[in-house]
Write a structure and sequence with these properties.
The chain has ten helices and twelve strands. By secondary structure, the chain is α/β, with parallel strands linked by helices.
């Protein structure tokens, strides 16, 4: 089945969480240089959200894209940003920003419209191309009953061109694919070299013509460097996973491929995956990623990973 999308999705996109000061501050000049490097590298899909740095990521993306054309801009709904008297208290949700605002979950129709209006104001644009229902893990019923119809109306009105859901799990997005008429799914971390649990969702998306934006392809860090280390899904990586990643890296090395190169190439093997979305916090990261995704990955690599039991057959 093929859906007629109102957008043509590119193969690569830039994720906006790091430029919302995820875990650590990114100076303004560095953030702008990162976004400029993404543009110069040919990135034409930019994904952000109110959640990322309490609107900081959206403001930075909007400023960098002002005056440019020929790109796709994606943001999210589900968290309203409302004033708080917390003052300069640090944000308690992993972003290095002051908590002058607080996140309030709202998946009502009115909340969706207000969220998008606020995002457009921060971005400085009259419309976005893609709007995603963001992390409705504990609000799935309301998101399907209220948030989705509101986004569908906004799509009909031309305020957005494509709508969908973005989550770190695959089970709830599968409900959206089966029960609504969404265009896209952003799946983070559940279809990677280390975790293919999201395969049932991807297969259903392929059957129904829903396109997938694969995010979290490095599983938050363990696959981001040639020698695996760091975090897995934002927690210290367990030793068995580090060892598995090292075995994958060894096989990659025999084919002249680095671990992050394979991590970016792997999701695109599935027919439902249209785009990989990779975050960056410095221009050097953008340039390095662009160099990696431009290099072909030999098919024999996947065959060897499968034969050694490091990937499922046809995975």
């Amino acid at each position: 089945m093929t859906k007629n999308l109102n957008v043509e999705l590119p193969r690569q996109g830039l994720g906006g969480a790091p430029l919302g000061n995820l875990f650590d501050t990114v100076p303004e000049e560095q953030a702008r240089a990162t976004l400029d490097a993404a543009w110069e590298s040919g990135v034409r899909l930019y994904d952000t959200a109110p959640h990322y740095g309490l609107g900081l990521s959206e403001r930075r993306f909007g400023s960098a894209l002002a005056g440019r054309s020929g790109y796709l801009l994606s943001t999210k709904v589900g968290r309203l940003l409302v004033p708080t008297d917390a003052g300069d208290t640090p944000d308690d949700d992993h972003f290095a920003v002051s908590a002058g605002l607080q996140r309030v979950w709202d998946f009502s129709g009115d909340g969706v419209r207000r969220s998008l209006e606020d995002s457009l104001d921060r971005l400085g644009v009259p419309a976005v191309h893609i709007a995603l229902i963001h992390d409705p893990d504990d609000h799935v019923e309301q998101a399907i009953a209220e948030a989705y119809p509101a986004l569908a109306e906004l799509r009909d009105e031309g305020v957005v061109r494509a709508i969908g859901v973005g989550m770190n799990q695959w089970e709830a997005p599968l409900r959206f694919v089966r029960e609504t008429d969404i265009d896209v799914v952003m799946l983070a971390g559940r279809y990677t070299l280390l975790d293919q649990s999201g395969l049932p969702l991807l297969d259903e998306c392929a059957r129904r013509g829903v396109r997938v934006l694969a995010a979290g392809v490095f599983n938050s860090g363990i696959l981001a460097t040639p020698e695996p280390s760091g975090t897995y899904d934002y927690q210290p990586a367990p030793s068995p996973l580090v060892e598995r990643a090292r075995r994958i890296a060894e096989v990659c090395g025999r084919h002249g491929v680095t671990l992050p190169q394979a991590a970016m190439a792997f999701p695109l093997r599935h027919p439902a995956v249209a785009t990989i979305v990779v975050g960056a916090r410095a221009p050097e990261e953008v340039t390095a990623n662009a160099a990696l995704w431009s290099r072909p990955v030999p098919a024999d690599l996947w065959d060897d990973l499968e034969s050694e039991g490091l990937l499922p057959k046809n995975g």
